[in-house]
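Worked example 3 (structure in, sequence out).
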């Protein structure tokens, strides 16, 4: 019985770790996408005909 509980606890920890890694990837990707969009706005604004 104790083995099963320990095994389930390890599975839960692996699932949590995978969730954290996914969240970090999404946050990093989204922040870079936003930064790229802001950079594009400055680039287009700098080269706009005035």
């Amino acid at each position: 019985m104790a083995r099963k509980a320990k095994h389930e606890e390890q599975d839960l920890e692996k699932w949590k770790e995978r969730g954290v890694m996914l969240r970090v990837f999404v946050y990093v990707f989204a922040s870079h996408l936003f930064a790229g969009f802001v950079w594009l706005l400055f680039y287009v604004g700098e080269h706009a005909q005035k």
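Notes: Residues 2-46 form the longest helix (45 residues). The chain has one domain: 1-50.
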